[in-house]
Amino acid sequence: MTAAAVGLSHSPLIGKNDPAPDVLARVAEAVAGAREFVRAYDPELVVLYAPDHYNGFFCKEMPPFCLATEAHAVGDFGTAAGPLSVDTAAAKALAQGVLDRGVDLTVSARMTVDHGFAQPLEVLFGGIDQVPVVPVFVNGVATPLGPVSRIRALGTAVGEAAAELDRRVLFLASGGLSHDPPVPVLDGAPPRVADALIEGRPPTPEQRARGEERVVQAGRDYAAGSTAMIPINPDWDHRLLDHLEKEELAEFDSWSVEDMAREGGGSAHEVRAWIAAFASLAAASGPYEMTSRFYEAIPAWIAGFAVATARGQA
Ligand SMILES: O=C(O)CCC(=O)/C=C/C=C(\O)C(=O)O
Ligand SMILES: [Fe+2]
Fold first, then answer.
1. What is the pLDDT of residues 145-188, one digit of tens each?
2. Domains of the chain, with CATH numbers?
C-alpha cells in the first residue's frame, strides 16, 4: 500500500496572539507546502493522532490512547464544533486489527475532541468534515503517562492494520513539540478545579471564555519574556525531528517521561502523536523519506512549532 505522514503543531493562540509578520510568513509557507503535499497524495483515509486538553477525556477514566468510531468537536479556541467525518467501518477495522496485534486499545463509540483534532483538519482540509478520518486520541497531558515504547507499539499496530485496508492512508500527527502552556494539572489543583478535571463538568460559555483568555494572556506574557514557563527547547525539538527523519524510532523507547517534561515542558508529551504517526508510516510502508521539515520556536504561540511531511517508499 502507499502511505504518507504529516506532523503539524497546533496552538490555541494561532490568530489570537500572532508573532511578527516574517515569522507568520514562514509558517504560512510551510503549511502551504504541507497542504500541497496532502493534495498531491490525495488520501482516501486520514488516521489522525492528537491529544485532548480536558475537553473529552478526564481523570475519572484516562486511557493512554483511544480510537474513535464516531467523534464530535467541542469548538474551543475558535475551531469548528460538530461531528468529524469519521469513517466508522475503517475505524472498526483498525480497532480490531490493533487489538489482534496485542495492543490494549480503548475504543470510543462517541469521542469528544477539541482543537487538538479540529485545528489540523481545518488547516489542511478546510474543515472537520471534509475527509474520511479515524481519530486516535493520545494522552499527552494527564499524568501518569506510560512509556513511549507503548506509543510506538500503538503506531506500529495501527500502521500494520492500515496496510490491510489497501487504501491511500495519511497518518497525521497534531501537537508538540516542546511547550509548556497553561493546561491545568490535577496534582495540587484546588478542589473545584480538581473536581472538574476528574469529572469533566462541561464549562459554561463564560468559564470557557475565561480559560481561553488565560491562555492568550499567557502567550502575551511569554512573548514579553515571562519566565514562568519552561522555555521552548529548539535543541530537544531538533533531536526529535532528527530521529523521525532518520527513521530512528526505537530511540524514543529510552526517552523518559520525566526527562521529556524537564527538557520540553508539560505539554512536550504531545510529541507522542508524532511518534505514533511516524511509527504507523514505517509499519505501513517500510522505509520512508521525510520530504519537508520546518521548525521555528514561536513564543507568542507558546510553541516549538514544526511541520513535516513524509512519504513511504512502498
Ligand atoms: O481552559 C484552559 O485552561 C484551556 C487550556 C488549553 O486548552 C491549552 C491548550 C494548549 C495547547 O493545546 C497547546 O499549546 O498545545
Ligand atoms: Fe495542545
1. 999 999 999 999 999 999 999 999 999 999 989 999 999 999 99
2. 3-312 (3.40.830.10)
Residue type, 125: F
Residue of 17, 53, 210 to test ligand 1 pocket, by largest number of atoms within 8 Å of CB:
53
Q: Are 170 and 46 in contact (CB under 8 A)?
A: yes
Bridge-based pairing of strands 3-8 and 45-50 is: unpaired
Q: If you take atom 15 of ligand 1, which residue's CA is the nearest one?
A: 11
| Burial of 245 from C-beta contacts in 10 A (0-12 / 13-18 / 19+) | middle
Has this prediction a pTM greater than 0.95?
yes
Could you confirm whether 179 is annotated as catalytic? yes
Residue 144 class from Cβ within 10 Å (0-12 exposed, 13-18 middle, 19+ buried)? exposed
- Model ipTM? 0.96
